[in-house]
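W.,

You were right to be curious about this one. When I first looked at the sequence I had no strong expectations either way, so I just let the prediction run and decided to look at it fresh. Below is the sequence, 152 residues in total, followed by the output.
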Amino acid sequence: MIWLLLFLTLFLSGLLGALWPAGLMAPDLFLVLALLYARSLPYYLGLPWAFFLGLVQDLLGYGLLGLHAVGLLSASYAFYAASRRLAPGETPGVLFSFLWAFLAKWAGYFLVAYWLRLVLPSLLPLDLLLEGLFTLPLLLLAWRLLPSPRRP
């Protein structure tokens, strides 16, 4: 099931990349997949999977190797931290854990960019808000369609 979700994410990511309008931030399907893995796997398996997904995203996008890996790793770590303190099956818990993971992903990106002294492109807060608003419905749909196999 894990590999099937990975191939589905790769297919949908390529499809969105071809059909999405230029200039808009597309939904982050790799973040959705990393959070699904974090929801269904223990942390010692979910965190390496998140790092691996980030490396795959870096290789597919010809990006800086490790940038997305650190972002998805920090997002999964934040999701694990938030889901331990909230009810993960209820709507406020899902929304807050997604928000916390989304902010941690971007904090990881900015941390790597600062560490490597990269020149960042101009990002408006509206771009980040739109990416979060486009990603959240896909996460909620995946949450609804794929029940958690992890037992409390």
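Here's what jumped out at me. Residues 123 and 138 are 23 Å apart (CA to CA). And, maybe more interesting for your project: The mean pLDDT is 86.

Coffee later to discuss?

I.
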